[in-house]
Amino acid sequence: MRRFFGKQEDGQVVLEGDEFNHLKNVLRLGVGAEILVSLGDENEYACEVRALEKRRAICQIIGKKVCAGNPRKNIVLFQAITKRDKFEFIVQKATEIGVSKIVPFVSQHVIAKVDENKIDRLNTIAVNACKQCERTIPPKIENVKTFDEVLQSFKDFDVVLFANERAEKSDKAKDLKKAQNIAVIVGSEGGFDAKEKDKFTSAGATTVSLGKRILRAETASVAMMSLVSILSEN
């Protein structure tokens, strides 16, 4: 069945905006069609379309089950801002891999910007990725943070890892099965400078090597998230 994001009103499920347009005008589904709807919780709801109004579809819940695709761990990606196309790619893949939150931030070598309009687009990308990978709760995408704000947030995590192309092999990954709250930090196209790396480690982060080859920012991000998700059994 096709997947949508909706909301509940008076005991019924309502699809509006892009979701309604996709159902009615793109897929051309009508009254009686059965669909799966995400309502922002851990469940996925089987619904039947009962009515098509001018700007919304009214559906009735006919079944529900816990969604197996939602993350088991709280993995937060702190991603230094990259160019737009790369950041959109990272958001899509972070959603598929199972990240709970994405925090864009500014570091020394960042040259791109993320404004509120771009955040809205990133949220749309995350929602669409949720449909593809069958999760019902999209990752939260926060407004841009400063480097110091990222450092201050380390206290909220059991493990903090950052990708360092010059790091030696780290054994910290062995702790990931027991960790519930995990932070992953990846740099922009220019990476982090030496002072930033020192600040990370002084604040409690552990460096992680992704091998002897130098990776692009978006490749490093996907590699880090995949490594952490697998080793933490997310």
Briefly summarize what is shown:
The protein has 234 residues and is α/β, with parallel strands linked by helices.
Could you describe the 3D structure shown?
- With 234 residues, the chain is an alpha/beta fold.
- The protein folds into two domains: 3-66, Beta Barrel (Ribosomal Protein L25, Chain P); 74-231, SPOUT methyltransferase, trefoil knot domain (Alpha/beta knot).
- 31% of the residues lie in helices and 28% in strands.
- It is built from six helices and twelve strands.
- It has helices at residues 17-26, 84-97, 116-133, 147-152, 194-202, 217-231, and strands spanning 3-5, 7-9, 12-16, 34-38, 43-52, 56-66, 74-80, 101-105, 140-141, 159-163, 181-186, 206-208.
- The strands form two sheets. The chain has a six-stranded mixed β-sheet.
- β8 (101-105), α3 (116-133) and β9 form a beta-alpha-beta unit.
- α2 (84-97) packs parallel to α3 (116-133) and α2 runs parallel beside α6 (217-231).
- The protein starts with a strand and ends with a helix.
- 33% of the residues are buried.
- The model has no long low-confidence stretch (mean pLDDT 91).
